[in-house]
Amino acid sequence: MRPGFDIGTEPDPTLSVAELNAAVRRLLAPRFNRRVWVRGEVRDLNDHTRSGHLFFSLCEPGQGRRGRDATLRAICWSNTWPGVRRTLHRAGVTLSEGNEVRVGGRVELNDSGQINLIVDTVDVDALVGRLAWARAELCTALREEGLWDANRVLPLSPLPLRVGVVGAPATQGFADFHGVLAASGFGFRVRVAPAVVQGPQAATSLAAAFRALRLAHERGDELDVVVAIRGGGSQADLAAFDTERVARSIAAMPVPVWVGIGHTGDRTVADELAHRCFSTPTALAHGLVNEVDEAAVELRERARRLTRAAHTHLTRSAAMVATRDHRVVSGARSALRAEWARVAQKALRVEHGARTTIAHADATVDARRTRLSPDRVRDVLGRQRNAVSSRLDAVQTRARATLRLADSELGRRRAMLDAADPARILRRGFTVTRDAAGDIVRDPSLLHEGDELITDFFTGSTRSRVVEGRT
Questions:
Q1: Domain of 471?
Q2: How many of the other CB atoms lie within 10 Å of CB of 238?
Q3: What gap in Å lies between CA 22 and CA 14, rounded to an integer?
Q4: Within this chain, do residues 199 and 243 fall inside the same structural domain, yes or no?
Q5: For helices 172-184 and 281-369, what crossing angle results, to 10°?
Q6: How many CA atoms lie within 13 A of 7 on its CB side?
Q7: pLDDT digits (tens, 9 = 90+) for 303-327
Q8: What is the pLDDT averaged over residues 146-161?
Q9: Are residues 69 and 127 in the same domain?
Q10: Judgement on whether residues 403 and 377 belong to the same structural domain of the protein
């Protein structure tokens, strides 16, 4: 630019781009010859890792011309940004999109004609206060909406083996978590929803991961618990876990959410909302393993109690069967003896009746023989004998019928006796255990170590000794 150039001394001047920019710089210099403080909402945050610079915009929504947003481009160069970042970390905060901040720096017009704010400091106290206020406001809103305890009151599955994981798979924290589950020997089924766990994109990424697991659960890929894990880092790196997106994602989960995000300081909003929180991913993994182990111990104890109850029931049943067998056999034998006696008595009565009838007929024949002619006698005698023969046939028929009924009843009772035969029970796989005296063992508490036992099977018997008595 020409030395001493003043755009006001020439009519209708024609300036080069560089001359116009230089003129604007000279006009701005007296007004902005020292640091200025600017307040605004952080947008378009870009921590340029390769160059070490930090680029972002400061925005005042709706305060520009025609109701548009007023926006100012801000830059923190690589020779300044590391120191500013360390100051923020020591205060336990970080710059995130949506933060309202107060920054200090100098105004610069670059060669592109754009005004930039070259930031060299951030009002940490104002930022901490603003974040604390926003956090308190979020907590109040969640309580008023009934979401503060929404996840904490959900029941945890007694066997939480289906685990949804929100985290960064390539990190050491994730590897530690997975290693503990793998070493436990339990059949954990892990479904991973990858997410960025720190930095400007962390809140959006974490919310998306929670949503993916919730949708998977609702579509049938059911989960018992969802865990959010992150390795160690500074307090400032936990800013995403204080955001409304992440908080509402946890409150909306239909299963318990456990949080282990590698910190031992103040609790984040995510910690407060979660069903349980742990200091590290490793501690969270051990918590899961302990839950499953306690459930396994309870299942084993129930199995032992069921086994003891079954053994006691079988022992009592065997004793009852043996007692009833004895009663059935004794009853059947008594019934058979009584039936044989009744049949024999009837047979004697039939035989006696037949003999009496024949004797009476013979006497009648003899008496009449003396009064009748030989022909008449023979005729009467023939009729008498026919009558006697008919009566004898009838008596014999009734006797045979009675004997058949008795034989049928005897066969039925013999079948009942065979059905109750202890040998049949042994054939079905039952056994009978007797002591050395031959008495059936019905109560194992009466046995002592060293007692000799005889166990009868269908095909034989075996001898054994009591090693340990149990009740």
A1: 431-471
A2: 26
A3: 14
A4: yes
A5: 20
A6: 15
A7: 787 878 777 888 787 778 878 777 8
A8: 90
A9: yes
A10: yes
